[in-house]
Structures are given as C-alpha cells and as structure tokens.
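Lab channel / #folding
Pinned by the channel admin:
"Please post every new chain as: sequence first, then the structure tokens as a reply. Keep commentary short and put observations after the output so the thread stays searchable."

First post following the new format, from NK:
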Amino acid sequence: MKDTMIDVQDVKFRYDPEQPGYAVDGVSMQVRRGEFVAVLGANGCGKSTLAKHFNAILLPEKGTVLVEDMDTRTEDHLYDIRQKVGMVFQNPDNQIVATIVEEDVAFALENLGVPAPEIRERIDESMKLAGIYEQKDKAPHKLSGGQKQRVAIAGVIAMRPDCLVLDEATAMLDPRGRRQVMKTIRQLREAGISIVAITHYMEEAAQADRVLVMSRGRIVMEGTPEQVFSQTERLHSYHLDVPQAAELRDELVKAGIPMPQNVITPEACAEALYALLAQ
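Reply from TO:
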C-alpha cells in the first residue's frame, strides 16, 4: 500500500484570474497515511484555500493534487476522491441537517443508497469513534459546541474516509469543546485515519506529527512540532505565537535556567524542570 495519501505538487490558485497575486502560490507538500499534519498561518495566508484542494472543492490553476494517485482535476475521480478525503468545517451548526444525532450521521449514507444493515453498522461505529454514541438519541441543538462538532465528524467518518481534513474545526468552540474534538482526533489517528488540521491554536498543533506554516500563499516552515516551535522569533515574524509551554521555556531560558529547546508541552516542561531539581 502506498504511503502517500495526498501529494500536492507546485500548486497555484487564485480566486480571480484577473488579479496578479495567488492565494496558494507554488505549494508542494504531502500527507502520509495515518499522519497528523497541522497547518498554521495568519488570516489570509492561504491555509483554508489549500485545504479545499485536498478533496477537489477547489482545483489548481497550475500544478497537481493527487489523492492516492488520482488527479483531482479528473472528473471521473471526483466521487472516489471525496470518499477518501472528508472535510469538517468551522461552524458545526452549518453541517448538521437532521433533528436527531444518529439520523444526522446516517444522512449521507442514506442519500448514497447504502443498505440499511450497513448504515446501522457504520453510524454506530462512527459515533463511538467520535465519542458521541451516548448522545445518539438527542436533538443536536441541545448539545454543546464540542459535541455538535463531533456529530459533524461522525457524519464524515461514517463515509469511511482515509483522510479527514478539519478546516478551523475548533475555532468556534470553548476550551472544553476543543479538548473534546482533539481527543476525537487522537482516536481517529490511532484508527489509522490521516488527519489534516487547519488551525490557529498552537496547543493543537503541538500534538501533530508534522507542522506546516504558511505565509502569503507559500509554505515557509515545515518540521516536527519541536523543530517548528523552537523557532520562536521566526514564528513571531509570521504573526504567530507558540504554545504556552514553549513561551514558559523561553522565559526560563532568559532567566538563566537551562531548558531544552524541544520543550513545547506542559508535560515536557514539567519533566525538564523535575530533571533540573533532581540534579
């Protein structure tokens, strides 16, 4: 089985061909099977535009996007591509169409004519995986924001995609809701689903396998979270912050306390401080 799930090569895209600038300007990147990739960038940097290329919502003006070797510009591949790459957007209320949770999760499967026994199996499986099974008989409007977003995620993973793209999916949620969704992301990744998270929350990106930073339509930084978040000044130059644990790391270093540059999580920070105290 091929390791590369999504292969983006020198993609350029602009919403108005009459304008000179590109929203995505010569981007090349890959998403590997089972990988969690976070894409960061200031507003207007092109990250959401790039994400919409992954399942052919947008098509490149130049360059290519391949999903398991299928070109997104080939119309005959469109159904298969959207089966393999599912998307969840920012506002869960805009993605929920039914009045009962399990009916909403089943909606797309029913429209596709999936046999009833298989629909039952898929919606139970996806609701459990998304951590929303206990709410299956409830009305979505009675759920919290985080629970609604997990309903939206369950509806997408019921389609059994190989890759899930979350375009600012936690932007409208409170901290508890964001934690719920991140727990779901970790469970999906453990189940072998590739995750691409477009986000501006640094603590979320710190949990990824790989981080991409975009600016003015281009990828300007790439690496593990430890590699990227050790470059505080460079991130600041792109109008981005670092995780709070990394900020604390930098302040401790300024105060003369030696801290490893790869400290980006509270757990790693606590371990480093404990090691210093134990000396």
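NK: The chain has eleven helices and ten strands.
TO: also worth noting, The first strand starts at residue 4 and ends at 13.
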